[in-house]
Amino acid sequence: MKMHGLGNDFVVLDARKGRVLDTHAQALEVSASLARALGDRHRGIGFDQLAVITDGAADAHLTFYNSDGSTSAACGNATRCIARYLMDESGRDALHLTTARGDLFARDAGGGLTSVNMGQPQLEWRDIPLAEAMDTLELPIEGAPVATGMGNPHCTFFVDDAEAIPLETFGPRYGHHPLYPERTNVQVASVIGPDHLRMRVWERGVGVTLASGSSSCAVAVAAVRRGLTGRAVRIDLDGGTLQVEWREDGVWMTGPTMHVASGTLTRAFMESLT
User: Fold this and answer.
1) Non-local CB neighbours of 146 within 8 Å, separated by 6+ positions
2) Per-residue model confidence (pLDDT) at position 18
3) Hey, is 172 helix, strand or coil?
4) Residue among 32, 99, 89 nearest 66 (CA)
5) For residue 30, what pLDDT is reported?
6) CB under 8 Å to 90, separation ≥6 — which residues?
7) Which residues 6+ apart lie within 8 Å of 77 measured at CB?
8) What is the fold of 146-248?
9) Which pTM value belongs to this model?
């Protein structure tokens, strides 16, 4: 399936029956090489992340790959998209999903919107992780960004004008910074109002993207810690708007989803990978 949340797009493979099959009933091995091939926007399908649904101890287990074949423990917009798909399928309005990030809970927020609890943020340097002990509220990097973990690492710069930052070069400069041994997502955010942010994002393993759920959660947490906003904030991204609220039980993210199409992979495509 092809899905997106605010233009943050995904290919989703439903492997709950134990295996994924192509159109000729051949079993697919979901791997980094398959992720790279499917993620190619010219020779494959194209996506920011590949998500795989499997059976798990809860309602379903989700595994995420970036378009470069690397894995990610969390992907908030993909989780929302899949939650909507599973709720529509089952007729339920709440789900318990598991990921490498941990247990995530999703619910129907009404009006076509879907919410997911992305869990509590990781604020200690070793949990994000960073390379050495330091204050995560102001990193010793030009611009004094905030470091946050949401199951994946984030580096948030608060700037006067997020639109003015050349994200194509700014992102990789800090996304590969030695303070982040696992690389990091990079956000630039501007305060529009007391509970309103404008944010743009460069994702590790992907590059500049229209939206990012985990990045939105990280930016909201960073803004609260800096005293820039309250705990419930509207975040405007290149692809649209998300509502994020840091509650006692975790960081809740709410927004629209879209299931674009369902399809099959051909034998010719699969043979081209060998």
Assistant:
1) 136, 137, 138, 139, 155, 156, 158, 222, 225, 226
2) 62
3) helix
4) 32
5) 84
6) none
7) 4, 5, 6, 8, 10, 211, 212, 213, 255, 257
8) Diaminopimelate Epimerase; Chain A, domain 1 (3.10.310)
9) 0.90
What length does the chain have?
274
* Token pair recorded at residue 46: 């194209």
pLDDT of residue 133: 98
**CATH match of 2-117+257-272 with 3.30.70.1350:** no
Q: What is the pLDDT of residue 265?
A: 87
Q: What are 80-94's pLDDT values in tens digits? A: 999 999 999 999 999
Residues lower than pLDDT 50 in the chain: none
Could you give the CA distance from residue 175 to residue 235 in angstroms, rounded to a whole number? 21
Domain boundaries, the chain: 2-117+257-272, 146-248
pLDDT at position 56 = 85
Residues pairing with 95 in the sheet: 106
